[in-house]
Amino acid sequence: MFRQAEKIVIAHRGASGYVPEHTLAGYAMAYALGADFIEPDVVMTADSELICLHDIHLDTTTDVAERYPDRARADGRWYAADFTWDEVSRLAARERVGPDGQRVFEQRFKAEAQGFGVPRLASLIELVQSLNRQTGRFVGIYPETKAPAFHDAEGLALEAQLLGQLADYGYHGRQARIFIQSFAADNLAKMRFKMGTQLPMIQLIASDDDAMVSAAGLDEIATYADGIGPDKRHVVDSDGALVAAAHARGLLVHPYTFRADQLPAATVSLADELRQFYDGYGVDGVFTDFTDIAVDVLRRLRHAVPMWPAHD
Ligand code: G3P
Ligand code: CA
Predict the structure, then answer these.
(1) Where do the domains of the chain lie, and which CATH numbers do they carry?
(2) Local structure of residue 192 (DSSP, 8 states)
(3) What is the whole-number distance in angstroms between the Cα of residue 181 and the centre of ligand 2?
(4) Which ligand is nearest to the CA of 289?
(5) Is 254 one of the catalytic residues?
(6) How far is CA 294 from CA 7, 70, 160, 258, 291, in A?
């Protein structure tokens, strides 16, 4: 069983509540705000570079459509798998837009002259490892393999490239400061059993996946993973029973995603929501766009400091 000493804060897509997701600026900010782990989503370029990007498409978070207007596929989307790293490195990263071209989070970063780019996974790792050397902290990384089946179909060896790069940067064994996460069970099982990695792994569970949160589903997950990363809906709907069921099988619980600007109905603040998850439901960590708020909630819980008066 993998042991996690303390409850953790996972910086979801960096400090994405403040600056555009998956940028080195966002990762550095999340580090400075006190994150325990920094989360990159990972996809591959045509020349097999691992990059930090949530979507297999480039058009939701970069200016690719303006820079390369003729490079969309027939479905009207620009795929990272069709671009070399050199091409991707010239793109500007920006706040996420939806299918309608409108910003997904209206109140987030607004400056036009941003200067942000899409990073390579290697750059994130070097950032975190360098800051760890300088500060004496032991911040980890939490890479998610995005769309493994798509990468297979494109002839891109996502898992092999990821495990190889992690090994090159010194991530080995059960105590490495890393979690590999995926929604695809076969992807994690392949890395565990066929590729032989011992690195800690988390099975993500989508909001509409009730099979994985069943007793049989958790039993199966416990054969290859060290924990679950459920949509937080599953924790709420079970009134915390999912956390107990996972813990009984030696599985950690790291639900997603906690956002100050996307609170559930009747929730007063992100701090209140986080306190309920950490202290009420007993989760082991959370994915959040607002690292600073989660860090403060954990500090208050550890030292029995009251929450802000408005929330008591
Ligand atoms: O990896 C946890 C959470 O990030 C999963 O959702 O879509 O933000 O990658 P997504
Ligand atoms: Ca993710």
Answers:
(1) 8-41+133-302 (3.20.20.190)
(2) I
(3) 8
(4) 1
(5) no
(6) 10, 43, 33, 9, 5
What span, in angstroms and rounded, lies between the C-alpha atoms of 204 and 229? 4
Query: How many CA atoms within 13 Å lie on the side-chain side of 268?
Result: 10
Instruction: Check if the beta carbon of residue 220 is closer than 8 Å to that of residue 194.
Output: no
Measure 96 CA to ligand 2 centroid, in angstroms: 14
Instruction: Kindly report, residue by residue over 233-266, the tens digit of the pLDDT.
Output: 999 999 999 999 999 999 999 999 999 999 999 9
Q: What are 293's strand-pairing partners?
A: none
Q: Are 170 and 128 in contact (CB under 8 A)?
A: no
Judging by beta carbons within 10 Å of its beta carbon (0-12, 13-18, 19+), is residue 123 exposed, middle or buried? Answer: middle
* Helical (H) or strand (E) element with 216: helix 215-221
Select which of 12, 151, 234, 254 is catalytic: 12
Q: Determine if the pTM surpasses 0.90.
A: yes
